[in-house]
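Intended use. Records like the one below are meant for learning the mapping from a protein sequence to its folded structure. Do not use them to infer anything beyond what is encoded.
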Amino acid sequence: MGFVKNLKNTKEDKSIYKTNSGFTIIEVSILFVIFLIVAFLVVPLSLDDTMQAKNALKWRRIQGDFENIFYSVNSYKNNDNFVFSESFNLVMNGEIKSDIEPYKIVYMNGSFPSAEYRFTDYKQTYKNATVAYKVYNDPKTEAIGIMMYDVNGSMGPNTWGKDVFGYNIYTDRLEPFCKNDSVATQKQDCSKTGTGICCSNYYLIGGSFN
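Structure written out for the chain above:
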């Protein structure tokens, strides 16, 4: 009888290590740790995609503003002493609130931009974005300059294709980078292995995040 009683107590003791669903405490602990690891890996990616979606939406919404800028620039063309760069600067000055210190901006793949896409004269707009541009004295192509626009201002991530976008400047229009490239080329560049430059147009035509 003593042996049967001890055996019964042993079974009862083991039962305290099980939950009502039949899992042991160790099994539940393992599942909990796995859940935490998955959450740790997935949540930052989800937050990054959400932020990128918001920034892309900001970029889409300001397109009309830049169309108005060129409407204003073109209004000076009737002047006998019209100089594009001077008129462009005059109109842009109306959008600028203050000068700001340059800050680091990187490509989407993490590398540092080539000299063509580096700027030194950073301005803060009334929408708290950052704008920087350069008009070439001796343009080598039809485009006579380029412009960078950071929808978040100096606040991160400060990355081309995530919150930084840009235009080629022509005498009659602003054109998002890569507008004339194939969709496949834009998609590849607007990815973790690309520069992010082509996101400037890719998001405007409905491209998704990669």
